[in-house]
Specification:
Number of helices: 24
Distance between the termini: 90 Å
Shape: elongated
Oligomer: single chain
Structural class: alpha/beta
Bound molecules: ligand C2E, magnesium ion
Strand order of the largest sheet: 11-12-14-15-16-17-18-19
Mean pLDDT: 91
CATH superfamily of the largest domain: EAL domain
CATH architecture of the largest domain: Alpha-Beta Barrel
CATH class of the largest domain: Alpha Beta
């Protein structure tokens, strides 16, 4: 609090109410060293000035004898007005009797006329302002008990006050994230973690005055700073990094996100949300330690927020549609349609066609992917049924199951219901689970997958080779089909090494006794090479891009004709 007050660029507003020009001038001269001073000729004018913007004044200095409306009337009116009571009043008088009367009417203090030494006047004003500000704050909740920095609520409240007094100064919102701090707690114990946080806060606190800033601990290992605009935040970051180094925590990185010259029309909390978005952009990027919230990030942020907001409507309006991409078995002389993959498409009324790579990772990060997946699962099941009715055959469809779905305890029952509604058996439906999900949460995943397999679902490991599963782990995983990641196919013909890699992946599948699907096959030569290596199933533009159900029906028709005509 003290530091905050010492911050001289934040000038409080003081109102001098006196009918005598000479008094206004003397007092104004004294106070304008420390405060922004306004004047009123009488109490009526003062009340008008205070109305509406009462909370932006920190003090009223009130003469008692004035024309139009005197000081006593002012005090009387103030005693009946809650908003006015929040502004302290110092009465200026030369009579003992008036002193007593004004104190009784609620004045906080008095200054004798003629005025004392300027220092005394200033000291009195400062003391009263301090007292009032202290009173209006609930002390216990002001500071975080571990670091002594402001708590979130107070931090935001002080920013509000700063902006009330001085909204003109350009300021920056800085978020400081101590990466992997939880490891400190895990390995060194919580008391040590708390000590380290308090040392970081101390170092930060020392930097604040020269930065003209205030700080808080936002949560766990995240600090917020609100500072007058400046260019060099690297030294602040380095200060904290040094504290960590002093405690031999060299592998813990301090990462910062900055929104410079915050837009004051935006909500205060959002300033820091945006700085945090910038900060998260460099998560895992060890070449950058500070990221700025810029136009590009802003556009991305708005885009993502739009998608999040519009998702429920998109599902209801069927702006989300499921496309199907065929998979062909190439083991025989002529390729045979074996199954399809269901892939989501979003035809947004304003943004146009939105790629799944733009929204799937976003919805995976906030859990909304479940809504998308449940929609796709239902649509795909209904589509299998329709094709069955139309053509008398089952085209098994595989759907993508996100890592979030795996953690959902109702996953099995959801899938059961979907199949039941459409009169399908699990063997007609396949589930694609990306390889990286296996390495992230192996135990839980294996348990879920085993249960699903027991029910008869077939499980495809998607994007194989893009994750970091160990060979050892793969051999113990319950899977039915292995899908080679597209990047291998793309690079396959570049050189011998890449070719060998694909061979290796196919050999692993053979060893596990499961078929391989190659994704992203676009050329005849890729197909031939894969066939030679023993890859049995192909998915890719070579055969077809993902297409809407109507077009896929034509693919099935063609396949059936082909089969009929086959010898
Ligand atoms: P994925 O599951 O590995 O799907 C294969 C992706 O490869 C699809 O991209 C498909 O259009 C594309 N592809 C197939 N053959 C070729 C080819 O020959 N050349 C090229 N360049 N690309 C090919 P898409 O549809 O853009 O989907 C991207 C990813 O988004 C999917 O990768 C999957 O991870 C995710 N995704 C798509 N739909 C869903 C969904 O319904 N749920 C979930 N959770 N994820 C989905
Ligand atoms: Mg897939
Ligand atoms: Mg894939």
């Amino acid at each position: 609090m003290k530091k905050f007050r010492q911050n001289r660029t934040i000038k409080r507003n003081v109102l001098i109410v006196d009918d005598e020009l000479i008094n206004r001038e003397i007092l104004g001269n004294i106070l304008s060293q420390e405060y922004t001073v306004s004047y009123a000729d009488n109490a009526k004018e003062a009340l008008e000035k205070l109305a509406g913007q009462d909370s932006s004044y920190s003090l009223v200095l009130l003469d008692l004898l004035m024309p139009v409306m005197d000081g006593f009337q002012f005090l009387q009116k103030r005693s009946e007005d809650e908003a006015l009571k929040r502004i302290p009043v110092i009465v200026m008088t030369s009579e003992k009797e008036s002193e007593v009367r004004s104190l009784k009417l609620g004045a906080e203090d008095f200054i004798k006329k003629p005025f004392d030494m300027p220092e005394v006047v200033l000291a009195r004003c400062e003391r009263i302002i301090e007292l009032f500000e202290d009173q209006s704050l609930i002390k216990q909740t002001e500071r975080d008990s571990v670091t002594g920095l402001y708590t979130n609520e107070y931090f935001f409240e002080y920013i509000r006050q700063i902006e009330l007094w001085d909204s003109e100064t350009p300021r920056d919102a800085l978020v400081i994230d101590i990466e992997h701090f939880h490891l400190v707690n895990e390995f060194c114990g919580r008391p040590f973690g708390d000590l380290l946080l308090s040392k970081i806060a101390e170092a930060l606190d020392r930097e604040l005055p020269q930065m003209n800033a205030i700080a808080c601990r936002a949560n766990a290992d995240i600090f917020y700073i609100y500072a007058a605009h400046q260019v060099d935040y690297e030294s602040v970051r380095q200060t904290i990094q040094n504290v960590l180094a002093n405690f031999k925590m060299n592998n813990i990185r301090v990462r910062c996100g900055l929104w410079e010259n915050v837009d004051k029309n935006v909500e205060i909390e959002a300033w820091f949300d945006r700085a945090k978005i910038a900060c998260n952009q460099i998560r895992g990027d060890y070449t950058h330690t500070l990221a700025r919230y810029d136009k590009e990030i802003h556009a991305r942020h708005v885009f993502e927020e739009t998608l999040i907001r519009d998702l429920p409507e998109a599902i209801a309006n069927k702006d989300l549609v499921v496309y199907y991409q065929p998979k062909y078995n190439i083991e025989g002389d002529t390729p045979r349609l074996t199954s399809a993959e269901a892939l989501i498409r979003w035809n947004h009324p304003k943004l146009g066609f939105v790629n799944p790579t733009d929204f799937v990772p976003l919805f995976e990060s906030n859990g909304l992917i479940q809504k998308v997946d449940n929609f796709v699962w239902s649509e795909a099941a209904a589509q299998i049924r329709k094709w069955k009715e139309l053509f008398g055959i089952t085209v098994p469809v595989s759907v993508n199951v996100s890592r979030i779905d795996i953690l959902d305890p109702s996953l099995e029952s959801k899938l059961d219901n979907i199949l039941k509604e459409n009169g399908l058996s699990p063997s007609e439906y396949m589930l694609e689970i990306t390889e990286s999900a296996y390495s992230e949460n192996a135990r839980r995943l294996i348990e879920v997958v085993e249960n699903l397999r027991k029910k008869g679902f077939r499980i495809e490991m998607d994007d194989f080779g893009s994750g970091y599963s160990s060979l050892n782990m793969i051999t113990s995983l319950p899977i039915d089909i292995l899908k080679i990641d597209m990047s291998f196919i793309r690079n396959m013909e570049k050189d011998e090494r890449n070719m060998k890699l694909v061979e290796l992946v196919i050999d692993i599948a053979k060893f596990l006794n499961v078929p391989t699907v190659a994704e992203g096959v676009e050329t005849d030569s890729q197909l031939k090479t894969l066939k030679q290596m023993g890859c049995g199933i192909i998915q890719g533009y070579y055969f077809s891009k993902p297409v809407p159900p109507g077009e896929f029906s034509k693919v099935i028709k063609k396949e059936l004709e082909h089969r009929r005509n086959a010898p």
